[in-house]
Amino acid sequence: MSRTKLEVADIFRRFGPAWRQANAGHISLSQLKVMSAIEACRTEALGGHVAACTKCSHQHIAYNSCKNRHCPKCQGPAARDWMVARAEDLLPVEYFHVVFTLPAEIARIALWNKRAVYSLLFRASAETVMTIAADPKRLGARIGMTSVLHTWGSALTHHPHIHMIVPGGGLSRDGNKWVACKPGFFLHVRVLSRLFRRLFVEGLMALHRTGQLAFFGDLARLVDADAFARYLAPLRKTEWVVYAKPPFGGPEQVLAYLSRYTHRVAISNQRLVSADANTVAFRWKDYRIKSGDRQKVMRLITDEFIRRFLMHVLPDGFHRIRHYGLLASARRKINIIKVRVLIGASAPEQEPQSEDDPAPLTLREPCPCCGGTMLIIETFKRGQVPRSRAPPRKQAA
């Protein structure tokens, strides 16, 4: 497997120690763990295995992955495994993509209250869609959805938003009928936006009343209930950004989309251009440009690049992919079976196990020299030297 020329891990290894020292006392334990995991990923620090070709004499060492959800190198395999698990849940109906975004004023509060505000973002957006869909004047159905949290913009800025994938329909109130959306249309985004705004602001006020929000710097004044109410007052009148993209072409397109979004991290290694002690350059999209080439190169001070990357580390144990309504984990399989019966659809066929599928100790990647099968001949733990690569012992005189 080819390795990109520059990785986030390289930046952390070269400039991370000085950054940690300069910011001691201002870095969370979760952020330190993420830095450590990314630095160690696919290095001898985590152990690995030795693979040998069954046709030629080629051998190579492959080191273990850190499997941290913030690591750019580990999310590809994790996304593929997740997609395989979700493929059987797909329905032969239109799927819609709805995005809920927090205003910048709320995002500032969220930065210091990630668990509380991100959880509220999940709840408020899901409740909004389920409430409007259940309205007999709208769809009049119980629906389900998969929500994915992203906290970044293309420039690594703090931009919390929910990507929601929703099947185009739901069960009737009595559960005996499938109610489909109009072709190409889900729900009015302005109606969604206004209910989302109300639910979120009410939820935020409740968090404040129960002392679940912390404020720092120029927001410290918001500890006072009256000051907090005044801060939120203008946001009750502005339009909150909720938009729906065109429906997907089919279940296959849904899976392709999910593979790009469910396990994405703040920045991929492929977007990095260069890095030194002074600056990091990376490609980004300027969405302010309505037409033409949006691709640009941004240059940040190296310390600022590291700070922005770590700004998107989620709290330990926080789930960034959640399912609601008909797709909630507790009854998902039962509901999906029922919907398939109602719409007369069969379950997706599972691909049979191929005779060419690799055995447990065989790699999927062929030999880079001759294309032969690569067999794992040894595994070793962190800190160990592979026996097959250890220097030969000297013979006693």
Strand element count: 13
Largest beta-sheet details = 5 strands, antiparallel
- Principal-axis shape equals globular
Mean pLDDT: 88
Give the strand content: 15-25%
What is the N-to-C succession of helices and strands?
HHEEHEHHEEEEHHEHEEEHEHE
Question: Would you write up a description of this structure?
Answer:
The chain is α+β, with helices and mostly antiparallel strands and 397 residues long. Helices cover 33% and strands 19% of the residues. It is built from 10 helices and 13 strands. Residues 353-358 and 390-397 have low confidence and may be disordered.
Helices and strands in order, then pairings?
Layout: H1 8-22, H2 29-40, E1 48-53, E2 59-63, H3 75-87, E3 95-101, H4 104-112, H5 114-134, E4 144-152, E5 158-167, E6 169-171, E7 178-180, H6 189-209, H7 225-232, E8 242-245, H8 251-261, E9 272-275, E10 279-285, E11 295-301, H9 302-310, E12 321-325, H10 332-343, E13 374-380
Antiparallel strand pairs: 1-2, 1-13, 3-5, 3-8, 4-5, 4-12, 6-7, 9-10, 10-11
Helix pairs in contact: 1-2, 3-8, 4-5, 5-6, 6-7
Compact summary:
The protein has 397 residues and is of the alpha+beta class.
Which key phrases capture this entry?
13 strands; three-stranded antiparallel beta sheet; globular; alpha+beta; 397 residues; five-stranded antiparallel beta sheet; disordered C terminus; single chain
